[in-house]
Give the backbone structure.
Amino acid sequence: MLNIRRASRVDAQAILDIAIPSFLDAHGHSASESEINQYVKSNFSLRAFEEELDNKENLFFISSDENRINAYSKISFNQYNGNIKGSHLVKLERLYVDPLAYGKGIAQELLQHNIDFSKQEGQQGMWLNVWVENKRAISFYDKMGFKVVGAFDFKISDKHYNPNHVMYLAF
């Protein structure tokens, strides 16, 4: 049985342990090895996660089973997106699952938890960016009811940007 709870600073290392393999599995081939390594070094450090967890605008949730953390999410409320009409929109910044836990329904349960929580907090929809070549994630979000509403270029390095879909789910 999954346990989903709000994460705190003490969970930073466990989140980091999921973030790197999950990011590399989905994006490791999206740029040169040196660009990916530099991106990971710059964005996936214990200090970076501690700072993100300390920021009150970020809400992190972690999923675990049998006392092992297997996924995490990061959302932020009231995030404007020019591709979407309306206000009170929550941005799903990350939904990362340990690659060893793929296929167990964890992503679906964690996403649904984020949707339900966001609705309770008065948000009217959820949006996210997803790399256009991340077919697994795009298929998952389609299945969950998200629709492509725009495009976004995600910066990997000063020389490399990955094209992303902006996907949206109205509540």
About this structure: The mean pLDDT is 96. The chain is about 35% helix and 30% strand. The helical segments are 12-27, 33-43, 46-54, 106-120, 135-143. Residues 77 and 90 are 4 Å apart (CA to CA).
